[in-house]
Design brief:
The chain is an alpha/beta fold. It has 14 helices and eleven strands.
Length: 326
Amino acid sequence: MKNISILVPETAIIEAVADPLYMFKAVNQFLEASGRASLFNVKLVGMTKEIKLDNSLFSVHADMLLHEVTRTDLIFIPAISGNISRALELNNGMIPWIVAQHKKGAEVASLCIGAFLLAATGLLNGKKCSTHWNAANEFRTMFPEVELVDGSIITEEQGIYSSGGANSYWNLLLYLVEKYTDRDTAILASKYFAVDIDRDSQSSFMMFHGQKEHQDADILKAQEFIEANYIEKITVDQLSAMLLMGRRSFERRFKKATNNTVVEYMQRVKIEAAKRSFEKNRKNINEVMYDVGYTDTKAFRTIFKKLTGLTPIEYRNKYKKEPMAA
């Protein structure tokens, strides 16, 4: 029997508490229906017996308090909401318990923005992690010692798991179902919950807003210039000269401020514009490519797939109602 502890933090997102509970209870039913014994003992665990969520719209009753759980096999840290710093402060009491259980052998899995609470334990230091793409910049700022993996649905390192944005945590749930049971049970669960199994990237869902939460005014000017003139052929030398800065100094400061090289940033801006164009109009691949400043079809397709996980045609067909012929 595997003991699963689903934490119920203050400000937790209710779905991220209910969904893993639903998943593993359903898997128990699948196992029993096939003549096997149920495998998972699932409990909701909180710092108090009753946790009010979403401005008291929901009330969750914990099965057990933290101190009542002496040993567990798997801990889920659900997504949290609202001001992250405030949420971490409210749930600070969970951190020693998570660390203690991990030392006893428990695996730990964060769902979406639950990665912030997991990172606050220090267990992710020097390790890879995924979270919602929209929280990536804030995460990097708060936890620079953690290697955030852009676009990843699932990370696994030394018994610590994380999932990407929003509903992508279903893929982590399926991954763990397969790990603890078998492939056939995971496939059955994927069909029952209508979740694509083995999806490993959230890249196609990402929107690039540019990393601008830094204090480097010169680099911000460069970012704004790139975003206003992405159709043009902009060079690193041009930007550094515009800012009266040496090229090496400019590249170093740009990377520090944005977590991208200058070239990577320009590529992301162009591809984001291409994505918006594919979503909104019926232009063909070459038209969109020229609109965002590319003239080499192979280069455009290669960079587009690298950043989104999909070819331009696949992306267009995914987000437009009427598929576009190859």
